[in-house]
Amino acid sequence: MQQSISFFSGFGINDLWFLGEAALRTLWISAVSISAGTVLGILFGWILYEAKFLGAVTLAPVLDIFRSVPLIIQLVLFYNFAPIIGLDFGPFGSGIVVLTIYTASLVANVARGGIEAVGKPMRRAARSLGLSYWQDMRHVVLPIGGRAVFPSWVGVALGVMKDSALVSVLGYVELLKASQILITRTQEPFLILAIAGAFYFALSYPISRYAAQLEKRWAQ
Amino acid sequence: MFDYNFHWRPVMKSLPDLLEAGLLTLQVATLSMIVGIIIGLALALIRLHLRGPLHWFASAWIELARNTPALFQLFFFGFGLGAFGLHLSPFTIVLAGLSFNCAGYLAENFRGGFQSVPDTQLRAARSLGMSAWQAYTRIIIPQVFRIVYHPLTNQLVWAVLMSSLGMLVGFRELSGETQFFASRTFRIFEYFAVTAIIYYVIVKVILGASRLLAWRLFRY
After folding, report:
1. Opening angle at CA B165, ends A209 and B170, nearest 5
2. Which of A105, A122, A124, B122 has a beta carbon 3.0–4.6 Å from A63's, enabling a disulfide?
């Protein structure tokens, strides 16, 4: 009896390991770009708030572009543009750069909303008690405004985590790309997609629930 | 360092095709919004008023749509259903995926809208002799519409941006068409730059039109 040769092989324990590694890569790329994007976004938000006119004519339209063009197009554009000016980031670097700027453009609005959420009288009171501008920012605006917009920041962060799946177009093997590779080999799309989906869901659902609860508690 | 020659002529030659693909993008986004609004409304009402299996079904739909990447949802409709011998055309995949996603997000918006109209209004309308249908269509819905109008516009913009994922499941809308031309001529940057501009214009037109419409609708 000759055994028939098959190019397809079933889903095994090694593949689960492969998916796990890819999931870690998803986590890594999202963690880096969310943190960098948040720092940059807060800076942009502060500029938008402080330099009202100048910010509105210079920074705001630029940030608006990143919110009006699909992320996938931004990724492909940057990945193909960087070598033209002599930079070579590779898929991971390009993914980080684009996701960071994308996050920053979203966080900028959140941050500005947060600063605006702190009433003018309260800030004047803080200043007249002798707090410096930065002390006022650190001890009054950050705790109060930060609390007001924390849930929407969580929303942005989770959105970026999910959107990091798009980095797969550049050939970066994150979770969704890994599952696509496995599907091609094992021909078991349903099982593998279910695992990948479950991972995203398990990460996103508890955090979004927690943020919703915080919002409710702080609203009281 | 800068030894790249831009070639815009092939892009200009295929511009009519790109614009046509842009119309397809707009079409699939609008269609999925319409389907999404109908299903989302049903899901929101079910989640608010019913108990039991239907409630769980609606909750599961909403949470799955909101907590997994849109690309995962497209893949699910693309390959996942293939496991059951159901092979959809690229257009159907994108339409189904986007509608699923929009319905989930819109359901939450609608739920918020319905909850912000006090229950007493419905009871007051009913006690004035209106039927349930009349009370809903004349009292509740107009108020809810006003609240969800802005989120609805945002969702339409999202639908346009998300439809670019069709590129990854072989759908020839604006992004897919661009990739097709780009891979034929190797002018990837030029093609995607033009596509980015087209997306930007589409998004701005939608936002402008919705603002005009809002000005006309909510004058009182």
Report:
1. 140
2. A105
What integer pLDDT is reported at residue A82 of this predicted model?
A: 82
CB nearest to B196's CB, from A77, A86, A168: A77
Is residue B159 in a domain? yes
- A77·B192 Cβ contact <8 A: yes
- CATH for A15-219, among 1.10.1420.10, 1.10.3720.10, 3.90.226.10, 3.40.50.11540? 1.10.3720.10
Residue A33 confidence (pLDDT): 93
DSSP state at residue B84: G
Which residue is closest to A64 within chain B, CA to CA? B200
Note whether B70 contacts A162, CB cutoff 8 Å.
Answer: yes
Interface A–B counts its CB contacts (< 8 A) at 104
From chain A, pick out residues whose CB is under 8 angstroms from the CB of B196. 69, 73-74, 77
Number of Cβ within a 10 Å radius of residue A16 = 13
Which residues touch A207 (CB under 8 Å, ≥6 apart)? A154, A158
From first CA to last CA, the distance across chain B in angstroms is 60
| Counted domains in chain B | 1
Q: Look at the block and give the residue holding tokens 């007493």.
A: B120
Contacts of B11 in chain A (CB under 8 A): none
Domain locations in chain A as residue ranges: 15-219
Q: What does the alpha-carbon distance between residue A119 and residue A135 come to, in Å, rounded to a whole number?
A: 16
Task: Tell me if B126 is assigned to some domain.
Answer: yes
Flag the least confident range among B92-106, B168-182, B189-203.
B168-182
Q: What is the CATH number of the domain that holds B89?
A: 1.10.3720.10
If you measure CA to CA, which chain B residue comes closest to A76? B192
Q: How many residues does chain B have?
A: 220
Give per-residue pLDDT as tens, B165-189: 888 888 888 888 888 888 888 888 8
pLDDT in tens, A45-72: 999 998 878 878 888 889 999 989 999 9
Does the structure's ipTM exceed the value 0.95?
no
Range of the domain at B100: 10-217
Q: Do A205 and B165 touch (CB under 8 A)?
A: no
Whether residue B191 is contained in a domain is answered as yes
Q: Rounded to whole angstroms, how far apart are CA atoms A98 and A172?
A: 14
DSSP-derived secondary structure letter, B161? H
Any B CB within 8 A of A162 CB: yes
Q: Per the domain annotation, does B36 fall within a domain?
A: yes
